[in-house]
């Protein structure tokens, strides 16, 4: 396995090879199926691999290319879908111990957009139970005694193994960023509301963010462009905010992040920022706002209360369908006063305003994506570095920066202003290229 993929292992490289006639859509799919055959028995990234359905899709897409119809850069690209997202004709299990017993009658909006863009929907990837933090059956492909993270566990593990070229996850706390970081791939949590949740089983509806996982930031861009909402107001807002300075101006947050990060993560971040400055970036040490710990508390209150609203009735009828940690959260949510939840919602705008003031004249904030490398499989890791941005709805992009002493991936995350998703991807892509170049030296 490689931390930085070869060209043919990316969506962009595969798309070029398809159009040059070097491979077919069916051939690309078969390569993914071969990787599933090789590694699924130990990694356990998939709930369902729809081999027959995917082959039909790939052959139809080959016929379209031969007839001169090209749907764009996702044409013929195998994509995995987290098993809380509806795919027509397949069950949506949500990682439940008992299953939901629900066969999806239609695709989620995000899946419809993937199909329209020519993606091959390969199957459903493993999620932790109801997208919370109970350990999944999936294992980290870099070391199978480590967690792949959660809750988008199978999505990140499958992409890391080459079982698919991209995948869709969701994040309510740290469920895209953390798995991507632990599995050595790239992940994007878009601005809240920029990707539809229609057809996505909710965890905490005011915090749920669907988003892509892929081998490179460029591939995140390709998937995001295909699935994001395209309302005129959103497009206009993105265009206004996508003015990225070159070279980028980055703001480093220390304090809260330095105090929680493992020593080797702090060292890796220091080396990483030195590379960036050598390549021309300007890195500012910021005076950290004093409210980051408060954000964790407010975020937790909303998650627990909304999880109880979503699951309370079923939990009372079928408690055996819920493993311990999601059970604890549902019970906790039932004890939180409404005033506490209202306060947590009400303070969002004030906190966001303070954070935006901190980001003035910067292209992005920069922090570690996780406190360190993947821990053992008894947990899914600490989401503290992701929670503030999920609460505020700010977009984030993460990608690998190197290895720990045990040769496990470490990753960085960049945080942008709401609505600056495309600009953030541009900055992250430039930083990713610098990181790759530094590793080649």
Describe the structure.
The chain is of the alpha/beta class. Among the domains are: 7-239, Amidase signature (AS) domain (Amidase signature (AS) enzymes), CATH 3.90.1300; 293-345, no CATH class. Helices cover 44% and strands 13% of the residues. The protein has helices at residues 11-19, 25-43, 51-66, 109-116, 153-161, 177-183, 217-227, 232-241, 256-260, 263-279, 292-317, 324-333, 338-346, 348-358, 387-392, 421-440; strands at residues 46-49, 78-82, 120-125, 166-171, 186-189, 209-214, 249-252, 282-285, 364-368, 396-403, 409-415. Strands 1-3-2-4-6-5-10-11-9-7-8 form an 11-stranded mixed beta sheet, sandwiched between helices. Strand 10 and strand 11 (409-415) form a beta hairpin. Helix 10 (263-279) packs across helix 16 (421-440). The protein is globular and about 60 Å long. It starts with 10 loop residues before the first helix and ends with a helix.
């Amino acid at each position: 396995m490689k931390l930085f993929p070869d060209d043919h292992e990316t969506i962009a490289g595969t798309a070029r090879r398809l159009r040059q006639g070097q491979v077919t859509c069916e051939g690309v799919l078969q390569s993914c199926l071969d990787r599933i055959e090789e590694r699924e028995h130990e990694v356990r990234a998939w709930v369902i691999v729809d081999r027959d359905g995917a082959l039909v899709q790939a052959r139809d897409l080959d016929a379209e290319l031969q007839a001169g119809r090209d749907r764009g850069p996702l044409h013929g690209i195998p994509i995995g879908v987290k098993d809380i997202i509806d795919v027509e004709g397949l069950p949506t299990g949500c990682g439940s111990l008992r299953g939901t017993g629900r066969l999806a009658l239609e695709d989620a909006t995000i899946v419809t957009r993937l199909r329209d863009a020519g993606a091959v929907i390969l199957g459903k990837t493993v999620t932790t139970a109801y997208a919370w933090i109970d350990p999944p059956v999936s294992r980290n492909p870099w070391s199978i005694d480590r967690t792949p993270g959660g809750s988008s566990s199978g999505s990140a593990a499958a992409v890391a193994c080459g079982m698919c070229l991209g995948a869709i996850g969701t994040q309510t706390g740290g469920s895209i960023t953390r798995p991507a970081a632990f599995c050595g791939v790239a992940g994007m949590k878009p601005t809240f509301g920029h990707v539809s949740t229609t057809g996505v089983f909710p965890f905490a509806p005011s915090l749920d963010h669907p988003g892509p996982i892929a081998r490179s930031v460029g591939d995140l861009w390709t998937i995001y462009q295909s699935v994001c909402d395209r309302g005129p107001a959103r497009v206009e807002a993105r265009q206004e905010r996508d003015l990225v300075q070159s070279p980028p101006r980055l703001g480093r947050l220390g304090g809260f992040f330095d105090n929680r990060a493992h020593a080797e993560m702090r060292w890796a971040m220091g080396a990483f920022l030195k590379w960036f400055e050598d390549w021309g970036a300007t890195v500012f040490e910021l005076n950290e706002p004093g409210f980051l710990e408060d954000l964790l508390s407010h975020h937790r209150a909303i998650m627990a209360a909304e999880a109880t609203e979503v699951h309370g009735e079923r939990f009372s009828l079928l408690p055996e369908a819920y493993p311990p940690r999601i059970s604890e959260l549902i019970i906790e949510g039932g004890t939180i006063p409404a005033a506490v939840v209202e306060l947590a919602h009400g303070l969002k705008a004030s906190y966001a305003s303070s954070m935006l003031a901190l980001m003035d004249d910067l292209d992005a904030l920069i922090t570690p994506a996780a406190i360190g490398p993947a821990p053992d499989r008894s947990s899914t890791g600490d989401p503290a570095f992701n929670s503030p941005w999920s609460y505020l709805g700010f977009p984030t992009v993460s990608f690998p920066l190197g290895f720990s002493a045990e040769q496990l991936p470490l990753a960085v995350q960049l945080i942008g202003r709401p609505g600056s998703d495309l600009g953030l991807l541009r900055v992250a892509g430039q930083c990713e290229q610098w990181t790759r170049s530094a590793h080649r030296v």
